């Protein structure tokens, strides 16, 4: 583990690449060290990951949360002024159970639901270009309709996404004209549009206070 760079006021400096800043607990622990934390430690870590980081001026701060409705999710909703929650799920029923719980939890704490994204929606054969729906078909889309939420799009299961992640080269950079890159771009634009709609409804511009 490398030592984390800090500012004069002892705030951690996030790693930045391709114009995106990133901070993770994984940067602060040994490579194979397990993270076995109780609630108070989780809350303390989230505090350090937000207010303890020199984020600078951001367009959007994305907090990638694990599935579930535990301490981490509740702490984030209570401690940050959230513009909204994005629900990401694979199409199969067992994953959508957690997705529904997440929708209900954020709704109860009055965090707007931006919509649902279906990840690993299908595998497109590199030889014949035919899609295979490995985890089921349109599960997240059907859930969005049932819950009255916006369906923001789907991201296919693509080996180059994983390879690019391991290599530190996002597919939107290595293959900007690919089907997957277009899918990411379309989803991102719909999220931005949704944030704009919420801002008009609520009479203010989305802002995250750190």
UniProtKB/TrEMBL annotation:
SUPFAM superfamilies with a match to the protein in the record: P-loop containing nucleoside triphosphate hydrolases
One GO location term (cellular component): mitochondrion
Protein name: Iron-sulfur protein NUBPL
Entry GO MF terms: 4 iron, 4 sulfur cluster binding; ATP binding; ATP-dependent FeS chaperone activity; metal ion binding
Source species taxonomy: Eukaryota, Viridiplantae, Streptophyta, Embryophyta, Tracheophyta
Stored Pfam families: ParA
Statement: the UniProt record of this protein carries the keyword Iron: yes
Ribosomal protein is among the record's keywords: no
Xref: InterPro entries: Mrp/NBP35_ATP-bd (IPR019591), NUBPL-like (IPR044304), P-loop_NTPase (IPR027417), YlxH/NBP35 (IPR033756)
Any single biological process term in GO: mitochondrial respiratory chain complex I assembly
Family: Belongs to the Mrp/NBP35 ATP-binding proteins family.
Alphabetic keyword roster: ATP-binding, Iron, Iron-sulfur, Metal-binding, Nucleotide-binding
